[in-house]
Structure formats: structure tokens, C-alpha cells
Amino acid sequence: MTQRTLVLIKPDAVRRGLVGNVLSRFEAKGLTIVAMEHRHIDAAQAEAHYAEHVERDFYPPLRTFVTSGPLVALVLEGDEAIEVVRLVNGATDGRKAAPGTIRGDLSLSNRENLVHGSDSPESAEREIALWFPSLD
Ligand code: CMP
């Protein structure tokens, strides 16, 4: 089934010059970019995006990180795109993510893990509406 999912290429990836590398992997996999924007978000947008994590111990440093510089937000479309993006991204902790995945190849951190992908159809719908409210 064709799905859309929200991806963030996080500030660590932008700082490290890895945006092209990350985008290439999604495109090579066969996913289509249907929206994309370079943004430097504030704390309110971070809180809206990570609403389910705001009470967690790791949230304050996560907020500092995601607001620390520009990121690239995009919507990807393709067959089973939500699960496919999560497989391409790899496990949350870059130290444990499998080689061949974005995090497994390029991250050594649980926080600065380069990318975000929606974790369910419900999250994808909410996150796409939050980041790209005018996308049909
Ligand atoms: P993401 O897929 O964007 O979803 C929540 C984010 O919180 C996650 O990627 C990491 O950047 C961060 N995160 C999750 N768990 C931890 C943790 N235990 N310690 C630090 N950061 C975390």
C-alpha cells in the first residue's frame, strides 16, 4: 500500500554535510520526495513534533539538539514507506544500528542519530500535518 511518511534530516546531519548522502539512500531505495524544506525550528515546534516524549528525561537535551541548527524536513512516498524508512534509518541508537542503515553507517549516538522517521500511520498523518499543513 502506498504511504507517506515524515522524515527529518536532523541538525547533526546538516552540520556534518550528510544531507546528500541521506537523501541519496532514500531516492536509491525508490521512495519519492513529495515535499522538502530547510528549517531552523524553535522550542515550540520541537515540543509539537515530540509531544509524546516531552515528559521523558531525554527530552530537554533532545530539544536543545533539534533546535541547535537547521534541519531538513521532508515527506517521502512509496509502497510501505513508513516501515521502509524505519528500516533504512536503522535502530535509534547509532551504536547498535545495523551496518548498511543510515544510523548504522554514520552515527555513534542515541541522540544525534541523523534522521527521524514517523513510527506509525497515525504518527505520519499527525507529523505531516504539523510540518506541511498545506500539502494535500
Ligand atoms: P527519533 O526517531 O527522532 O525519536 C525520538 C528521538 O529522541 C530519537 O530519534 C533520538 O534522537 C532521541 N532519543 C531517543 N531515546 C533517547 C535516549 N535514550 N537518549 C537520548 N536521546 C534519545
Descriptive overview:
The chain has helices at residues 11-15, 19-29, 43-49, 59-66, 81-89, 102-106, 121-131; strands at 2-9, 32-39, 71-79, 115-117. It contains 7 helices and 4 strands, in the order βααβααβααβα. Helix content is 41%, strand content 21%. Strands 2-3-1-4 form a 4-stranded antiparallel sheet. The mean pLDDT is 98. With 136 residues, the chain is α+β, with helices and mostly antiparallel strands. The protein has a domain at 2-39 and 70-120: 2-Layer Sandwich (Alpha-Beta Plaits), CATH 3.30.70. It binds adenosine-3',5'-cyclic-monophosphate (CMP). Adenosine-3',5'-cyclic-monophosphate (CMP) binds at residues 53, 58, 62, 92, 110-111, 113, 116. ATP binds at residues 10, 58, 86, 92, 103, 113. Its EC number is 2.7.4.6. Keywords: ATP-binding, Cytoplasm, Kinase, Magnesium, Metal-binding, Nucleotide metabolism, Nucleotide-binding, Phosphoprotein, Transferase. One of its GO terms (cellular component) is cytoplasm. Homotetramer.
